[in-house]
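Notes, p. 3: input format for complexes.
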Amino acid sequence: MQRIAVLASGGGSNLHAVLDHLDALGADAPAAVALVVSDRADAYALERARTRGITAVHLPRGAAEGALEQLLADHGTDLVALAGYLRLIPASVVRRWAGKMLNVHPSLLPMFGGHGMYGHRVHAAVLASGTRLSGATVHFVNEQFDRGAIIAQWPVPVPVDDTVDRLAERVLRVEHRLYPWCVAAVARGAVRLGDDGRVHGTLPYEFARFGVEGPQHPFVPES
Ligand code: GRF
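Output follows (223 residues plus 5-O-phosphono-beta-D-ribofuranosylamine):
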């Protein structure tokens, strides 16, 4: 059973979705969330973790260099899932969990990503651009913001009269489907980051389970 650490700065709705998905898999679950870390003491994500009996740690912004790595190591972390974590992940942590660290981003990367592109800023930029398509992206984390290898994407339409709030909600709904599948697939080894820096494998098991078209799903790279 893989041990997942979830890092979150805010509401933790993606954390909630991952927990529910692993619960739903029951005995088939390849992983369990063992630790939730937040840079904000008042992050609702910490509350969600405590409610479920999961270790919840507030790591303040001024924490010593190396504190995050130590914490993750102390909890035997196999997989790190970033879920709205707004702090830069130290390079040593990125390297140590290379291919074992995922992020979910609320746009179709590589568009509308990068430094400073988070939360409503992303959706405001999407609306300002006039594009009629946005969505969610799950990717492996590397040392560049939002530039790691893409595991899966799920598009959503952007109507001409859209608002930031409505778009954010529409994208978040698909994040809640896509992220747990990807986390479970990576935990299971069905999807992995190759030495060539590319994503290998498919998400057939997860998609089949939820009644979505299988490995031929048009928005999932096949291998
Ligand atoms: C999500 O939109 C995610 O894509 C982004 O931050 C937000 C986190 O929301 N990285 P929540 O805390 O999971 O509700």
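The pocket of 5-O-phosphono-beta-D-ribofuranosylamine is lined by residues 8, 10-14, 83-84, 104-106, 172, 175 (CB under 6 Å).
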